[in-house]
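This follows on from our talk about sequence and fold. Go ahead and set the record down below:
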Amino acid sequence: MSTTPTPHCATAMSRFHAVIPAGGVGTRLWPLSRASAPKFLHDLTGSGATLIRATYDRLAPLCDGRVAVVTGVSHADAVREQLPEVADEDLVLESEPKDSAAAIGLAAAILWKRDPNIIMGSFAADHVIKPLETFQRVVTEAVETAATGKIVTIGITPAFPSTGFGYIRRGRSLRLKGAPSAHHVIEFVEKPDEATARRYVDSGDYSWNAGMFVAPVGLMLRHLEASEPELHAGIMAIAEAWDTPERAAVVEKVWPGLPKIAIDYAVAEPAAAAGDVAVIPGDFEWDDVGDFAAMARLNHAEDNESITTIGDSKRVYSDKSSGGIVVSDTNRVIALIGIDDVVVVDTHDALLVTTKEHAQSVKAAVAHWKSQGDTDVL
């Protein structure tokens, strides 16, 4: 994806480059998702494609294959295997996680050094989105809006009053010819309580914040420099050396000392306060596959079955049980009798049994094993 500078008269879409941050373990999906094989490397929807592969396939047609991936060093080989199209110079490897501002900021800095006219879009590797055509229309509007000098977020139209997501408060229409859905962003708000979330949804002025950002790389970096000068200086030093033989030495020296902060706090919220952020409503189906209840939603049971089964094993028996999900990568026989909404995850070295209602609490088990020093199962 090495680039030559684009002329200022280039169309917005010809300037578009996609970045896929592929980080996080997905602790609520333990023991299926592990530090060595996080959820974006799995097919969690039964589509035949892993989440990161599906993300690449959604984006590549929009940017003619100009895609970079930011991921951990330990996942490099798996990402290369799943995305052979991504060149080594476009695989940004983190020696240790530094949160999203460092990951996305470094990608922006590398692209800016190659061509300061690039418009970058950041899309997480572990989201499930459909239909494809609607998503691509929304991204196209986001790119057109970004070309006017805005940081653009894609806000998901709320399906219910969720307390698990942050929200984006939408303001006036920007009245853009190439992006009729574009609106000014008044503010980003933190995860609300249930009553507040219901008020947000009922108002029609709020979207879920799914962490999708599209922006001119120069504008992104200017806001990062203003709010996090130390982080900005570090990533610019790495970007300066990225396409040279000095890359490894500079990364080794600089990356460990970078501050940890989310892109929302480092860029999106300050930029919104400055009037530089727009939102495109994402009127497509979206799921961040946050727990096993989400997996059950995305993998419906067959018409003649009462339990959703995921994995190669078909040795699952169900009697007077319904609404549950079994995820298995063993050949063990599993029998469910007289139990509803159960979650069973069976791997070679760990067994999880819970219910959909308590699926969000799985991360507590991960925290327990970590505190006990049992990192071999994490």
